[in-house]
Amino acid sequence: MSSRKAFALRIDAKTLAAMHRWAEFDLRSLNAQIEFVLREALRKSGRMKMDKSDNP
Description:
Layout: H1 13-25, H2 30-44
Helix pairs in contact: 1-2
């Protein structure tokens, strides 16, 4: 990713805990896991095309 933007994310505690467990299982930081989930959802819905440079 060439450019990154920071922003605040409001998320309920149960969802945050689940994301944190998933991130630990996948050996990613929580931030990297959230980015991964968002990219995958966008790709699967056809809202964002991926190229080789988009893979972490």
